[in-house]
Amino acid sequence: MLVTINALPLAVGVLLSCSTTLGATAVYGRLTLGLGWAFVQLAALVGGTCWYEHRTASSCTSASATTAASHTARGA
Q1: CA nearest 33: which of 53, 52, 47, 13?
Q2: pTM of the full structure
Q3: DSSP 28
Q4: Distance between CA atoms of 19 and 22, rounded to whole angstroms?
Q5: Furthest C-alpha separation in the chain
Q6: Pair 23, 33: CB distance under 8 Å
Q7: What is the residue-level pLDDT of the chain in tens, covering all 76 positions?
Q8: Alpha helices of 1-76 — where are they, by DSSP H?
């Protein structure tokens, strides 16, 4: 899932890097389309990584809680 989240921004970034005129288009003041897209790509990477880490940590927590409950039930 993490690859899917970052694949589209990466593909658009590659396309923008192929066209210097498109990447150099001014969006707001000195902010260009290429630089703006780089910020979007960075946000997608950081956000996707945080989401993945949170999801992985919560699935490990629930698995260990289930395992501990099953050991307690068998031991009693």
Answers
A1: 13
A2: 0.62
A3: E
A4: 5
A5: 72
A6: yes
A7: 667 777 887 888 888 788 888 888 898 999 998 888 889 888 988 998 898 888 888 877 665 555 655 566 666 5
A8: 2-18, 20-23, 33-75
